[in-house]
Amino acid sequence: MANHRSAVKRHTQSEKKRQRNKAYKSALRTATKKVVDATTAGNKEDAIKSLCTATVMLDKAVTKNVLHRNNAARRISRLTKSVNTIAAE
């Protein structure tokens, strides 16, 4: 355990941030899973709806410093590509 007051404070702050990031990343995984499930099922409308939700969540994760902007952009790009494949069929 930390010896200085500032180190104790820093530890509690980082623990709170870790818990917050963990919850947000879990929600992101759920949102992306919904897009993938709708895409594999071939359900175009549900895939587009869940893609919009996932895109907003990924963009928010960038502003909250949960994800790097390039990471979020890559995920959005891949999800959009997969949804567009069912739209073309």
Q: CATH topology, anyone?
A: Methane Monooxygenase Hydroxylase, Chain G, domain 1
- Oligomerization state of this entry? single chain
User: Which bin fits the share of residues in helices?
Assistant: over 70%
Write down the overall mean pLDDT.
93
Please state the overall shape, judged from the principal axes of the Cα atoms. Answer: elongated
Structural commentary:
The chain is mainly α. It has one domain: Methane Monooxygenase Hydroxylase, Chain G, domain 1, CATH 1.20.58. Helix content is 87%, strand content 0%. The chain is built from three helices and no strands. The mean pLDDT is 93.
TL;DR of this structure?
The protein is an all-alpha fold and 89 residues long. It has helices spanning 5-41, 44-63, 69-88.
Any descriptors?
87% helix; mainly alpha; 89 residues; Methane Monooxygenase Hydroxylase, Chain G, domain 1; 3 helices
